[in-house]
Design a protein that fits this description.
single chain, alpha/beta, six-stranded mixed β-sheet, three-stranded antiparallel β-sheet, 32% strand, globular
């Protein structure tokens, strides 16, 4: 089984520059998978290094194109959490592939990061879910269109329980 990883940037890849500013660094997913010693056949494809608030339809069309033209049936997309649900919705309708988006609320380089857990959840999901588009965050798997980022709680929740402070 081969997994095609597409990286887009987001908090998972954030690091501090020498000037003390937060910048999107190189993809962390390879390091996270290496630490986990999965032994999986993984291809990493860096599309961009953007905060997800800066992703636009051109970026989403590129992501969709890479997913559609990939010869892998299992696709992991690391993505910023602010517009992850928008990109997941943009990928709906792709058939024959298991597509899982994940990211982190804290950068992977930080001690208290949820990145390793979320990537592990996504990798397990890729191996067990039927074809479709999913989000793996906050210890849960959500079908595209069913999750909302709740900023007040700092996690993803199902849409029907979203509070008024939630944003996609």
């Amino acid at each position: 089984m081969r997994i095609h990883v597409i990286t887009t940037g987001g908090t998972i890849d954030v690091e501090y520059s020498l000037q003390g500013e937060m910048v999107t660094g190189p993809p962390m997913v390879g390091m996270l998978l290496g630490r986990a010693r999965t032994g999986l056949d993984v291809t990493i494809d860096r599309i961009c290094r953007k905060d997800s608030r800066d992703l636009d339809d051109t970026d989403r069309n590129l992501i969709r194109h890479r997913v559609e033209t990939s010869d892998a049936e299992r696709i992991l997309i690391t993505h910023g959490t602010d517009s992850m649900t928008t990109t997941a919705a943009h990928l709906n309708g792709i058939t024959g592939k298991v597509i899982v988006l994940t990211g982190a609320m804290q950068p992977a380089r930080m001690t208290d990061s949820d990145a390793a857990f979320n990537v592990g959840l996504a990798i397990g999901s890729l191996q067990t879910l039927p074809p479709g588009v999913y989000i793996a965050m906050s210890g849960r798997i959500f079908a595209a269109g069913t999750a909302t980022k709740d900023r007040s709680l700092g996690l993803f929740i199902h849409n029907e329980t979203a509070s008024t402070s939630s944003t996609p």
